[in-house]
Specification:
mainly alpha, 14 helices
Length: about 270
């Protein structure tokens, strides 16, 4: 509940301190980023049984699962962040209209904040599996308090960009506190090793997207696919995945062929 309240406090404080026009300029991009929350939430929920089982019966395996899931959520968050930052103008224009173009700086900061925002979804389940909900609550309270302080400090000077700065900083700090707490419990994240390869590949993706920012629509569509391909190739070239992770991915994708064959058989039967 505290976490959900923290995610809604920005617009409330902005409304108290400014006017509805400023609230609208921040609220539009914020709702776009907020709408993506269903992706990490949907993907994180099925992991809880795995966390719970390994935490109680195989602590060493729990640490591995924690780091692998952290890496996976970093990997899927960076493409969204790249689109939000590099293509903030076309995304904002297409989704909300040209009248929201002054909100571009807020849109870009919110895009950067998607990376810690995606990662943050995991930790409520990680701490619950370890029976460490009290630590999770304390760290969340500290992060939420900082968010309110930043909002009150930044809004008078930066207006609708202030909540975007507060969102990014508070998300980074809160996730950092959670990671540090898990480290104290004996589960290091090895965060630098997890982050640098996806970030490097994401920078390449962002450069490609930015170079096609003012190109015709067809070129932009092709550039989007090219940027995603470059991101995937960058991850492979930098050897982001271990042999165990590649093996697990192959096992996880083994259902695709029988699934497609089953549906093809049903379609032939019904036709």
């Amino acid at each position: 509940m505290l976490r959900q309240l923290a995610m809604q406090i920005d617009i409330f404080v902005l409304g108290l301190m400014t006017n509805m026009n400023t609230v609208g300029l921040f609220g539009g991009p914020y709702r776009l980023s907020w709408s993506l929350r269903m992706i990490p939430q949907t993907l994180a929920l099925p992991l809880y049984p795995l966390y719970s089982r390994t935490a109680h019966f195989s602590p060493s395996r729990f640490g591995e699962v924690y780091r692998q899931s952290l890496k996976f959520f970093v990997l899927i968050s960076i493409p969204f962040a790249a689109f939000f930052v590099a293509w903030s103008k076309p995304v904002l224009t297409l989704a909300l209209g040209a009248r929201f173009l002054p909100a571009l700086p807020a849109m870009q900061l919110l895009g950067l904040g998607l990376i810690p925002f995606f990662i943050s979804t995991l930790f409520q389940y990680l701490f619950a599996a370890l029976d460490a909900q009290k630590s999770f609550f304390v760290m969340t309270a500290i992060g939420s308090s900082l968010r309110v302080v930043l909002l009150l400090s930044l809004i008078p000077s930066f207006h609708f960009v202030g909540p975007a700065i507060a969102f990014f900083c508070a998300e980074v700090l809160t996730v950092g506190l959670w990671i540090y707490q898990l480290y104290k419990l004996g589960y290091p994240a090895h965060l630098v090793n997890i982050l640098w390869r996806p970030i490097a590949a994401g920078l390449v993706m962002g450069v490609i997207l930015y170079s096609l920012l003012d190109a015709p629509v067809l070129w932009q569509v092709g550039g989007a696919f090219l940027a995603l391909l470059a991101y995937g190739l960058g991850l492979l070239v930098l050897r982001t995945f271990s042999s165990e992770e590649i093996h697990q991915a192959r096992e996880g994708m083994a259902f695709v062929s029988p699934f497609v064959a089953s549906w093809a058989k049903k379609l032939r039967r019904n036709s």
